[in-house]
Amino acid sequence: MRHRFLSHSVVVVVSALVCGSTLLAQDSQQTEAPKVSNWGYQAEGPRPELPPLDPNEPFDAHDFSGVWVTDHRGTNGFRSMTDEDGTPPRMAWAQEVYLSRKTARPHKGKEAVEPAFGNDPIMACNPKGLLRLFMYTDPAEFIHTSTGDRILMTFQSQGSTRNIWMDGRALPTAPEPRWNGYSVGRWEDDTLVVDTIGFDDRAWLDQYGNVYSKDMRLEERWRRVGRDTIEAVYRIDDPTSYTRPWVSTTKIYRRQAHELREIFCAPMDELYFNAVIRDPAGGVIAP
Amino acid sequence: MRDNKKTLVLASLALGFALLPFTIEAHHGTNQSYDRSAPVTVKGVVTEFRYKNPHPQLFIDVTDNEGKTTPWAIEIAPTPYTLALRGWSKSRSDEALKPGTVVSITLAPSRAGTSVGLLREIVDADGVQILGNLGSPLRE
Fold first, then answer.
1. Which pick of A28, A41, A243, B78 has the fewest CB atoms within 10 Å?
2. Which band of pLDDT confidence, cut at 50, 70 and 90, is reported for residue B128?
């Protein structure tokens, strides 16, 4: 009796072990390696790289998904719609405002100042505004919603976002001022055309203090020309500020393999930097 | 005794930086404040390193031959974003520049004559470059 019980016990234990091993094997086969952060600027592993580019590789021209950064090579740090000579004549009030904006960036018609004596609003963490975000050194990500009703752009700089509404809606007739305006988009063949109005005119158009008014109408034309390249041309129609429309040079955006980094402009960091670096560098010492 | 592995890593990083020059986009033009034509080298001890936006800041104490200590504040033009692209994560940067680290720093001094500068190169006590090859001609 006892022997039979022990035999049965052994069978049960062995069975349990076999079943457990089987389950474990199945689990191992079904378990994939856990996903880890795509580098995400933690730089804890190999920097992600794009796959080698095959010129003949097909791509969806209507899919902008991914992270893209402005290609500033050859610009020597100059970031605006066009070069200085391409700036349209400003209306008198716009010229006055432009000259009143003090920046450390040399530009035609005005002297650069020490940053400590500048009045660029972003130095107190105010929003950059859409155009300045486009032309900045930090990347942005396009995200297509699953419903197709909009394309979201999220900018690494300042953690800013904006919606490009693709559902056929009209622009608002009485837009409230927004730092990034209100945008609607449509496809013209393979070109994403975006119209934006309703800008908050307190933001600078660029780092040189160029002006735009709340009446500005911005047209963007985005075109994916390759697997890893998007081109964009911007047109500003702002007769309140300029004597003629202002069309940008072609801006190039290169696809990146990594995810965006979190970058908010935290006043505690910005103001601390101003106090310990920017101002003393300019000879301004706090009492 | 020198850590050969550490030396190799740092040398590799330095080489990487040499091949990938930083584009200096100093903070809203703080480059305007510095005299890049007359770099100076100071040797001191790290008191604090802030891997923060808008630009990382390094603080060192420099003691002269007479024993007088002057605190220096150094702007590192590459942002944490740019540093991380080159492999300088926060953890790696914090370790390399932790308080007490003896460093030799070449910088562009402030035109105002204050003890503030724009970083060009950091070399550790063993003479190994920690960060360098900073700077490219800015549009004047």
1. A28
2. confident
Q: What is the pLDDT of residue B29?
A: 61
CATH value of B4-131 in 2.40.50.140, 3.50.50.60, 2.170.150.70, 3.30.1330.40:
2.40.50.140
Q: What are the residue ranges spanned by the domains of chain B?
A: 4-131
Q: Do the chains contact at A269 and B88, CB–CB below 8 Å? A: no
- Whose tokens are 């804890």? That residue is A44
Q: Confidence band (pLDDT; 50, 70, 90) for A161? A: very high
pTM here? 0.82
- Per-residue pLDDT averaged across A171-200, rounded? 98
Mutation site for B-interface testing, chosen from A277, A278, A279, A285 by largest number of B Cβ within 10 Å: A277
Contact B34, B114 (CB under 8 A): no
How far apart, in whole angstroms, are the C-alpha atoms of residue A254 and residue A230?
7
Instruction: Tell whether ipTM is more than 0.85.
Output: no
Residues 91-130 of A with CB under 8 A from B: 103-106, 112-116, 118, 120, 122-123
Q: Which residue in the set A41, A78, A113 is minimally distant from B84, CB to CB?
A: A41
Residue partners of A27: CB distance under 8 A and separation at least 6: none
pLDDT at A36 over 60: no
Q: Is A47 on the interface with B (CB under 8 A)?
A: yes
d(CA B66, nearest CA chain A) in Å: 25
